[in-house]
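Fold this sequence, please.
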Amino acid sequence: NKLSERTLKRGLAAVMYTAAPAVHLQSFIDSSKGGEKKTTDESVALMPRLLPAAIIGSSAGVFSGITGLGGGIITVSAFTLFTDLTYKQALGTSLCAMVLPASVGAACRSF
């Protein structure tokens, strides 16, 4: 049984309305606790910092593959909620992750 176009559009709108406020949720939580985000120290072990990013990236890839949503909407929201990245850092990370696949796609298309 197929879903109608109208139902799919409403589902996408629901995801967008849910994900958009989530981007700023971490800063709201930090400000309500009365403290600012802690800056990371250079001596912090690398693996505990990479593990959340790997889980977020993998989950976003699976979810976007299943639903057809762009991975950026999921990754940016998750990075701001579950890591110490600010919104701008999370957005930059998401954009940098797209450089290699976009470049390869453009090169393959032009040759």
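Residues 79 and 85 are 6 Å apart (CA to CA). The mean pLDDT is 76.
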